[in-house]
Amino acid sequence: MAKALVLEKKGQLSLRDIPVRRDLSPADVLIGIRTVGVCGSDVHYYTHGKIGPFVVNEPMILGHEAAGVVLEVGSEVRHMKKGDRVCMEPGIPDLSSRSSKLGIYNVDPSVRFWATPPVHGCLTPEVVHPAAFTYRLPDHVSFAEGAMVEPFAIGVQAALRAGIKPGDVGVVMGAGPIGMMTALAALAGGCSKVYVADLAQPKLDVIGAYEGIETINVRQQAASEALAEATGGWGADVVFECSGAAPAILALPGLARPGGTVVLVGMPVDPVPFDIVGMQAKELRIETVFRYANVYDRAIELIASGKVDLKPLISATIPFDESIAAFDRAVEARPTDVKIQIEMPA
Ligand code: ZN
User: Fold this and answer.
1) Distance 178 CA to ligand 1 centre (A)
2) pLDDT in tens, 268-297
3) What's the sign of the alpha-carbon dihedral 288, 289, 293, 297?
4) Sheet harboring 2-9: ordered strands across?
5) What are the structural domains of the chain?
C-alpha cells in the first residue's frame, strides 16, 4: 500500500492508501516522485468530474506533471540507472500504432495519459513508467523545474507548429500557465517580441516581467487594436490562441498579419464560432496542438541552458500531506497564482 491523492468522485478528494504496482516490465523504470505540478485539467476533474468524453467513474489518482528519482530499472533499460533524476511524459502510447510509427504518438487513439480517466496519475510516492518516456534531468535543473517540463512541452510544441522565423512578432491570447509557457517558448524559438493578452492584470504582471514580453490588458484595449498600434497596422506573424475563450477565438483573424499563422492551443469547453472568412481573407495558416510529441529533449535543453527560466511561474510549493489544500487553493484561482506544485517528502 502507498498513500495517494485520490479523486473519489466529482468534488471529493482523499489522501489515502491504495494498492501499489511495483512489478517492473523489462523496459520500465520505478520512479520515486518528488515534485508534481497541479494542472488545470486535474482541477477541472475535481470540480466537474469530467473533461469532454473523459468522465471520472471510479476513484482516480490525480497528477501528471512530475519529476523524481529512478529507484529501480527494468532488465532491458540501458540509458538510465538508479539514482538518475528524471521527468516523465505522462502519455504512454501504443508504440506499434500507426500514429506512433508516424511520430505523432500524442494523437494515438489508444494513448494512456496519467490522470485522464480511467488511468491513474502520479500523486503518489512511487510510479512505474516506461523508460522510453522518462527523461534525465541535468544536475542543476531542480525537481520543481523538472515538473514544469510537461506544461512547457505544450508551449514548445506550439512554437514548433508555428514554424517561427527569426524576428517574428508573436501574440499569445490568454495568460494562464500554458499561455505564459507558450510565450516563453516562442521567444526562445526566435520571436523578437511576444505580446501576451489577458483580462487579469496580476497574471500580465508575472509574464510581463520577462524581457521580450509586452502585455495587453484586454479590459483596457482590444488586443487587435493594441497590436495594430504596435505593428503599424500589419499584425503579428504568429498568433497563439491559449485562452479557449470564445471572444478571443472570434478575434483571431484581426490579430494576424496577412499570410500569418494561427496556432490553436487552448481548448474551449464547448464548440465556439470561428471566423472562417476572416481567416481566408488573409490566407492564414491554421495549426492545432494536442499535448506534444518528441519535444521533451528540447524543453529540457531550453531550461538547462538557462534560455528559459520557468522558476518565476512557480507560485507555491505545498507538501504532499496538504495536497487537498493545494487543490482547494487551485480551485480558488487566486489571480496571482500561476503554477502550484506539490512536493513529496524526500
Ligand atoms: Zn497538464
Assistant:
1) 9
2) 988 999 999 999 999 999 999 999 999 999
3) positive
4) 12-18, 2-9, 60-61
5) 2-148+310-343 (3.90.180.10), 152-288 (3.40.50.720)
Please give the distance, rounded to the nearest whole angstrom, from the Cα atom of residue 40 to the centre of ligand 1: 6
User: 117 CA to middle of ligand 1, Å?
Assistant: 14
**CA neighbor of 343 nearest in space, from 128, 123, 151, 71:** 123
pLDDT in tens, 194-216: 999 999 999 999 999 999 999 99
State how beta strands 65-73 and 12-18 pair.
unpaired
Say what the pTM is. 0.97
Three-state SS across 227-294? HHHHCCCCCEEEEEECCCCHHHHHCHHHCEEEEEEEEECCCCCCCCCCCHHHHHHCCCEEEECCCCCC
What nine digits make up the cell of 158?
506550439
**pLDDT at residue 21 is higher than 80:** no
**41 C-alpha to ligand 1 centroid (Å):** 6
CA of 342 to the centre of ligand 1 (A): 14
- Whole-number pLDDT of residue 20: 78
Span from the CA of 237 to the centroid of ligand 1 (angstroms): 27
CA 66 to ligand 1 center in whole angstroms: 10
> Three-class SS of residue 183?
helix
CA 219 to centroid of ligand 1, rounded, Å: 27
**CA separation, residue 206 to residues 25, 50, 80, 224, 310 (Å):** 43, 30, 36, 22, 11
Which grid coordinates are listed for 317? 510549493
